[in-house]
Amino acid sequence: MENVNHLEKFQAVIDADSKIEPKDWMPEDYRKHLIRQISQHAHSEVIGMQPEGNWITRAPSLRAKLILLAKIQDEAGHGLYLYSACETLGISREELIEQLHTGKAKYSSIFNYPAVTWADIGAIGWLVDGAAIVNQISLQRTSYGPYSRAMIRICKEESFHQRQGYEIMGKLALGTPEQKEMAQDALNRWWWPSLMMFGPHDTDSPHSGKAMTWRIKRESNDVLRQRFIDKTVQQTEVIGLKIPDDKLKWNETKGVYEHGEIDWEEFNQVINGNGPLNKIRLANHISAHENGAWVREAANAYAAKQKKEVLVA
Amino acid sequence: MSNTKDNQGQLWEVFVQASPGIPHKHSGSVHATDKEMALQNARDLYTRRSEGTSIWVVPSSAIVASAPEDSGMLFDPSNDKPYRHPTFYVMPEGAKNI
Amino acid sequence: MTKQEALFNYTLRLGDNALILGHRLSEWSSKGPLLEEDIAMTNMALDLIGRADALLRYASQVEAKGRTEDDLAYKRGERQFLCNLIMQLPNGDFGFTIARQLIVSAFDLCLYEELAQSKDETIAGIAAKAVKEVKYHLKFSTDWTLRLGDGTEESHNRIQKSFDDIWMFTAELFETNEVDAIMVKEGIAPDYNNLKARWKKIITEVLLEATLKVPADAYMQTGSRKGVHTEYLGYILAELQYLPRAYPDAKW
Fold first, then answer.
1. CATH number at residue C182
2. How far apart are CA C86 and CA C117, in angstroms?
3. Number of structural domains found in chain C
């Protein structure tokens, strides 16, 4: 009886577009859904540092190097904001990391693709961050307070990320023939995985139902994907590149771009661990974590000694 | 694999003052094993874009928060005391600077 | 050697040190013991590469041969670099990186506080900004030296070994040559011989508080002032310079 009462109040708060805060009553499924979604988001930020980090030492100018470093640093920061938001739901960072390492928690599949050339740094910023931003802007209005606040902060900071990527692509596209080829090649490889980032079509999306009722998610996968396509087509034309989709065409009546079919077989394979770099990305994270264990132990031991000294004094 | 003894340090709440004279505002949290580390982590995480002139860090465990179920008891009683607000009062017509 | 040549050489020395240490610190991305430390390491890398950018730009202006800061960073060979050997060493474990950072930050503090008073206004300006950054780097590496030195037995042993191993690269920081003589005479840079006592005092105090031993001075490595470097530098440059070298006509 009491639960029914709670549930009604909870849904009323959500329907009024107010926020649920950590100490408020919430259905267990709401909490679970949030932990899954926010931690996946946090892990994506952190694993997403790897493909770009791959190019820090090879960035072709000091300016490009500084920008890339600052961008990757932001990603670490965003991972931290999201881990903190997730922790307010009663799960520790240790547990979250363990879930990542054991494969219980996922991260965005896009980061299992390799950043092969410098143009990939452009494509990642422009397309991958571009797609992420579309999703994140929508999530600023999510119903869970700490998640919403993290998203607002992240969106504010991320606004330079996509511009950074697009700037790289623009320079390459207008550069030497080799550079232009590099840019088109990166676009060819990153376009479809970027579209997959929005997840399955609405008709096939297993988690969306309740997420929409609870306003964790505010707009559907297909709506967000379409928004991304529509704004990216024009940007591609401006720099003289071509989106690798023969079926892409403007639909006058609907006012949107139609696109070709996404290869969901590839999507599922990568999600299930068979992407080019799933194992390597995770192994890198585990190795950094293990190599840092003695440092964390030392810091804890030191802090314990300091506390003791304070007590004695 | 991560061992059970491992930990990521304790949780600290971060308050940043954006410019002199205004209140410190809650920015978020960080992990750290001691207060110096907490301050440095907070600086690196929350003031990368010159957002701050001063930072406070407080162990999250030191914060006492009111319970949502008490919010009626705590906050509703002040709803019927409009005389605490200046707009409650009717001033004689023509009076200035009051 | 003219004053201009000496100033070019000296500015390169400062710029190369910042560039190569920044390069090493940037390698910590995604490898830190805590995600927070990834950010801290990247922050120091940003400070250093930003400083390198400013110094190499000034060097290119002093040289006045039409080269840019990027040309200096990306198109010089191993023998033309003037960074100290200590900057080139691989990161090792977190403790080794901290040990190096403490040593270099203490040196940088002693040096850049003096450079902030330089008669050369550009150097003085860059140095004034650098002092603030370096103070923070020193604070950061001091705190970590304390945690590791006075943490667990393992961390104590590890960081003690790091200081022992790296010690032979410390004297080279203070070496002087013909360039220094001109810089000192012109009031542009301090006499490095006068920096050593203060540096040693800072290091000694931190190490003792961290329950560590200050390594004894033994045989010291040398070479960078003459452009004779570690084998590591070649690999660093191979990565750093790859794109501009592979696509000489391209602009990025």
1. 1.20.1260.10
2. 26
3. 1
CB atoms under 10 Å from CB of A218, counted, come to: 17
Provide the whole-model pTM: 0.94
**Mutate which: B2, B16, B29, vs A, most A CBs within 10 A:** B2
Collect all residues of chain B within an 8 Å Cβ-Cβ radius of residue A24: 68
Query: Does residue C143 belong to the interface with chain B, where contact is any CB pair within 8 Å?
Result: yes
What is the domain extent for residue C185? 3-246
C40-46 CB contacts, 8 Å cutoff, 24+ apart: C40/B40, C40/B41, C40/B44, C40/C140, C41/C97, C42/A69, C42/A72, C42/A73, C42/A76, C43/A73, C43/B44, C43/B48, C44/C101, C44/C133, C44/C137, C44/C140, C45/A69, C46/A66, C46/A69, C46/A70, C46/A73, C46/C22
Please name the fold of domain B10-64: Ubiquitin-like (UB roll) (3.10.20)
Which residue in A74, A302, A306, A308 has the most chain C C-beta atoms within 10 A of its own C-beta, making it the best mutation to test that interface?
Answer: A302
Q: Is the ipTM of this complex over 0.90?
A: yes
Q: Can you tell me the mean pLDDT for B71-77? A: 87
Mean per-residue pLDDT, A21-28: 94
Q: Give the residue, A235 or B3, on which the prediction is more confident.
A: A235
Name the residue in chain C with its Cα closest to that of B29.
C36
For residue A24, give how far its alpha carbon lies from the nearest alpha carbon of chain B (Å). 6
Domain limits of chain B? 10-64
In a domain, C252, yes or no: no
Average pLDDT over residues C145-171: 98
Element holding B28 (H helix, E strand): strand B25-32
